[in-house]
Amino acid sequence: MPVQLTTALRVVGTSLFALAVLGGILAAYVTGYQFIHTEKHYLSFGLYGAILGLHLLIQSLFAFLEHRRMRRAGRPLKLPAPSQRSVALCIAAYQEDPDYLRKCLRSAQRIAFPDLKVVMVVDGNRQEDAYMLDIFHEVLGGTEQAGFFVWRSNFHEAGEGETEASLQEGMDRVRDVVRTSTFSCIMQKWGGKREVMYTAFKALGDSVDYIQVCDSDTVLDPACTIEMLRVLEEDPQVGGVGGDVQPPGKGMAVEDDQVQAAQVRAAEVWSVHQCNNPREQ
């Protein structure tokens, strides 16, 4: 059966069911028919309550069936072989709260994806921005896999004292750090979020197959990369996938009220017939 027809039938069926329930509730309320009641009606159970109870039961049943269907649809996870698909997570940071940044980096460290590359670009290279590099070293540093570079410039604006030669040397250094390090942090001249993301994309170039992005106040679910990559790999018409971003307390325990909790149990997808991949940039 075509997908459009199935969807139309579900919409019609749901609408008719809703009308039937509303009609039954209205009729029960108007008639006031009661099955059981005590003297002076301190306690009673009537047609109105029976319909409401039945409605709640049916809703719970449908919710359970839909939840089970979604869980089954998520199995098995068809994860591409690591040698065939590579992913880089790019984190944009700007004057972030230290606690939020720590939680973001720790969640990135826990992502269940082999050889995931993590690139944090800090929008600012002044002394007051240095604490973000310190937090990077605290959470992800301390190994040969981590690299960093404090750049006086960015890809579109030269910093104070830069020459053409030193600017090119800085660009080469950024690319080298990002491509050779599993965890990298680039601090650069302030230029706004677009400039931060441009640096990450430009430095990565064609070295990875997919790029995942988030802000520095986002807590990532360990399965987020696998789930989003699964959607991209299963449907060639899908050009982009967004996570199910939820506030704290909605499905994920987070200590702070303002930290975003990014969960990818259900992915939102957009079909793109002509979409560039990183190799074409």
Automatic annotation (TrEMBL):
Pathway: Glycan biosynthesis; hyaluronan biosynthesis
Keywords on record: Membrane, Transmembrane, Transmembrane helix
Keyword tRNA-binding set for record: no
The enzyme's E.C. designation: 2.4.1.212
Chief location category: membrane
Membrane spanning residue stretches: 12-36, 42-65
Cellular compartments annotated: Membrane
GO molecular function, one term: hyaluronan synthase activity
BP GO terms, sorted: extracellular matrix assembly; hyaluronan biosynthetic process
GO cellular component, one term: plasma membrane
Domain of life of the native organism: Eukaryota
InterPro entries: Nucleotide-diphossugar_trans
Keyword Transmembrane attributed: yes
The protein's name: hyaluronan synthase
Organism: Ailuropoda melanoleuca (Giant panda)
Gene symbol of the encoding locus: HAS3
